[in-house]
Amino acid sequence: MQLGEASSADSWTDSLGETEAPGQPAMKTRLGPGLLLLIFLLPACLTAAGRETPYEKFQRQHVDTSGSWEPDPNRYCNLMMPRRNMTVSFCKDLNSFVHGALAMITAVCGSGGTWHHEDFYYSNSPFQVTDCQTTGASRWPRCIYRGDICSKRICVACKNGQPVHFARPSVCGGP
Ligand SMILES: *[C@@H]1O[C@H](CO)[C@@H](O)[C@H](O)[C@H]1NC(C)=O
């Protein structure tokens, strides 16, 4: 925070305090910094959420680095889709989670993958992947998923050496 901002903010709380009933100023000065913190941090948090980079979004939607995960793919999807914010304003119909270390998945854009076309790279090795798909009974906000886990090579679009989109294997010429 710059000095100028701090001093103008201080005078603002001071003037607020003066409008209150006498006997309360001690309380006001204690609330002041907390209130200020909230006012400065709240917009910062909102902007941070909105500023999710494409790589961060890819990780949220498609990367599960936890070594052990819910083994029932149906339960896994119904747990993970809301947890990763993909059921917030609609039920995302189809989404794949790749199980593995972020470095291994990111490497598909480099030595771990083979360029296919445009930005798309096909992994040289298979990954464990859980595909989640909404069932016919799924109605937002009650999103219901069927999960399917298998081992397959993954096709991703890369920007600046980082995966930013997950694509069906067929996009990379796979099955
Ligand atoms: C989901 O959204 C909430 C509210 O915007 C946020 O606090 C949380 O970090 C998000 N979760 C993930 C996994 O991004």
TrEMBL record:
It is found in: Secreted. Residues 51-170 form the Ribonuclease A-domain domain. GO terms for molecular function: nucleic acid binding; RNA nuclease activity. Residues 1-25 are annotated as: Disordered. The keyword Iron does not apply. Pfam families: RnaseA. GO terms for cellular component: extracellular region. One of its GO terms (biological process) is defense response to Gram-positive bacterium. Coiled coil: none annotated. Its main location: secreted. The chain crosses the membrane at residues 31-50. It comes from the Eukaryota. Keywords: Disulfide bond, Membrane, Secreted, Transmembrane, Transmembrane helix. Belongs to the pancreatic ribonuclease family. This is Ribonuclease A-domain domain-containing protein. The lineage of its organism: Eukaryota, Metazoa, Chordata, Craniata, Vertebrata.
